[in-house]
Amino acid sequence: MTLETCKLFPRHLVQLSFCPQHLLLFLLLLLHAWWGSCHPQCLDYKPPFEPRQPLVFCKEYSKFGCCDLERDEEISVRFYSIMDNFDHSGFVTCGKFIRSILCQECSPYAAHLYDAEDANTPMRLLPGLCGDYCTDYWHQCRYTLSLLLEDLGNPQQFANMTAGLEEDSRRFCDFLELKDRQYCYPNVMTNEDLNANLGSVREDATGCLELCLQEIANGLRNPVAMIHADDGTHRFFVAEQLGYVWVYLSNGSRIDRPFLNLTHAVLTSPWAGDERGFLCIALHPRFTTVRKAYVYYSVSVKREERIRISEFTLSTHDENQLDHSSERTILEVVEPASNHNGGQLLFGHDGYLYIFIGDGGRAGDPFGKFGNSQNKSTLLGKVLRIDVDNNDDGAPYSIPSDNPFLGEKETKPEIYAYGVRNMWRCSIDRGDPSTGTGRGRMFCGDVGQNKYEEVDLIVKGGNYGWRAKEGFSCYDRKLCQNSSLDDILPIYAYPHKMGKSVTGGYIYRGCQMPNLNGLYIFGDFMSGRLMSLKENPLTGEWKYTEICMGRDQTCRFPKLINSYYKYIISFAEDEAGKDCNWLYVLCNCILMTKIFSVKHRESHDLNEHIHGNTDLLNIPVKNWKKKLEVSAF
Ligand SMILES: *[C@@H]1O[C@H](CO)[C@@H](O)[C@H](O)[C@H]1NC(C)=O
Ligand SMILES: *[C@@H]1O[C@H](CO)[C@@H](O)[C@H](O)[C@H]1NC(C)=O
Ligand SMILES: *[C@@H]1O[C@H](CO)[C@@H](O)[C@H](O)[C@H]1NC(C)=O
Ligand SMILES: *[C@@H]1O[C@H](CO)[C@@H](O)[C@H](O)[C@H]1NC(C)=O
Ligand SMILES: *[C@@H]1O[C@H](CO)[C@@H](O)[C@H](O)[C@H]1NC(C)=O
Ligand SMILES: [Ca+2]
């Protein structure tokens, strides 16, 4: 086999010359590209990974390969059952060959060793061996071939074949040999170029981390959030801004009937840049027993715009649908303007519900004496924390007894942190898979005003600065210089030449790219830039690295792509299970700038117009949100 054969990968790049609909993409990461062609790849076509627990039998693939501990145990069982046929000296002579051959499915190059890269051609029965190694094997243990093939199919089928092969060293090795001397076993193990950066995401010449993507769903209209239930079903719940939540099953199928259809109640419009709408959903952290979902959306009540957080109960007869008659309002906050509605809802590891509320809108947080965000008498511009457990009778929520401002005069007890402008997408760190380091940390992107976008690490009682500060710099000079501000600076801020509306992401804790473990991966809605931050544990500083798409050759894998639609709306991760989890990015393809000239802030007239015209609501909400003030205000 020559390198040319590696280029047989079918090219599945999607056509990007048109903009079909809004896309939801799978953020899959890159396998070290080798001469741009032959990749580490597993027999199931997936990329290799770092097993969560070290392997016991095929130890050499403990660091990075294609087997988890469970598969490793199965291989070991098979080995010992084959070795039952041997006496001690046979075991000593042939055990090592059999073990090595059986373990090749754990090799990060398994797909290549088994000729499995091209799904249209038959796979080899056994991994491809190098010539010398095969000759050795033939000399010492040729009669073991039938044992290896025995349980791969109908034993009769192989009986004649192996009988013929075992007698003739040339035919034996014609059958087992992989002619490509670099990729055959065992040379593939010792080739330095192939093994140097296994599992490492590579940097391009400018230092940008190169990734590839896989599309997993499309045809969504402004998908604002994607979550999982953590209940072993591995389904996804994808929310669209106009008020739908859809269930995607683990096999990729979408259930026809919506999980939730709130389109009749959600206040939004087809106007590009409308920040209102259905913005988030969170499931109870013990969803298997507490069958409740929480949603965050814009609503018009008595001509007043509000955001509403409400609770739904799962249908008793359909686990892929909420009981639409079960809605119970948990909290409503009046929005003085139609932008900056916040929009994040999530459960922390403490079991409490966190709600991220925007500053109420317009530019520069103009309300009151020093804006809403620094005013603890209002819920606007805050991170809230409430307890929704055991709320079936009485109040819809209670205040956790250790909320930071309890008992402070003229301060809302729900407040957990303040000084936030318009946090868009927050996440909780799962923690390092082996040490647990970082577990429970809460990261948010806070959309900036005119100059800086920032990423914050949210802690109890923290003041995140707005409107005194935007990023690291002063926005309101007077407030900024007040020594009692005592604010927490972002872990990172970037100027508007890099992007104009941050979309918070996740700490990568997957196992396919061990060198990305601990990186915070996020993006910018306006510029489409994908970015990462890596913490220096000694200094606590976060170092920025851009993420770019791998080159065509790098991503030339079945189903992989290396481009995406520019408007990064949100990120997601899937349920961690036996398998590695992945990161996802939700993107939109349509430009929104054209419609910026439409002024509709605080336009109750417009809302009425929209409400009076339900057809409009059923039009896909073309573009998405946020940062309207760039040109409108
Ligand atoms: C196997 O070999 C025997 C004898 O050489 C022959 O009769 C039989 O048909 C062969 N079976 C297959 C499946 O080729
Ligand atoms: C996925 O699973 C569902 C339910 O088991 C089934 O109805 C559907 O046909 C499956 N879809 C695919 C593409 O296999
Ligand atoms: C969602 O609800 C609206 C009315 O509330 C209805 O007109 C629409 O058909 C529903 N959509 C789906 C997909 O069920
Ligand atoms: C703080 O917010 C409350 C509630 O909106 C408002 O009544 C009060 O005037 C504000 N305080 C200042 C100093 O602006
Ligand atoms: C500084 O902030 C405190 C608390 O918000 C306030 O009471 C005080 O008047 C401020 N000082 C100045 C000089 O603005
Ligand atoms: Ca800040």
CATH topology of the largest domain: Neuraminidase
Which architecture of the largest domain does the CATH hierarchy give at level 2? 6 Propeller
Broad shape: elongated
Approximate strand percentage: 25-35%
Protein name: HHIP-like protein 1
Transmembrane segments: 12-35
Domain Folate receptor-like: 46-209
Subcellular location: Secreted
Provide key terms for this protein.
633 residues, alpha+beta, four-stranded antiparallel β-sheet, disordered N terminus, binds 2-acetamido-2-deoxy-beta-D-glucopyranose, binds calcium ion, transmembrane, signal
Q: Can you describe what's shown?
A:
The chain is of the alpha+beta class and 633 residues long. It folds into two domains: 3-9 and 39-195, no CATH class; 209-632, TolB, C-terminal domain (Neuraminidase, 6 Propeller), CATH 2.120.10. The protein is built from 14 helices and 27 strands. The strands form six sheets. Strands 1, 2, 21, 22, 23, 24, 25, 26 and 27 form a nine-stranded mixed sheet that branches. Strands 3-4-5-6 form a four-stranded antiparallel sheet, with no helix packed on it. A hairpin with a 5-residue loop joins strand 11 and strand 12. Helix 2 (69-83) packs antiparallel against helix 3 (88-103) and helix 7 (155-166) packs across helix 8 (169-176). The chain is elongated, with a radius of gyration of 28 Å. Mean pLDDT is 83; it is low at 1-23, 28-37 and 591-633. The structure holds 2-acetamido-2-deoxy-beta-D-glucopyranose (NAG) (5 copies) and calcium ion. One 2-acetamido-2-deoxy-beta-D-glucopyranose binds at residues 258, 261, 263-264.
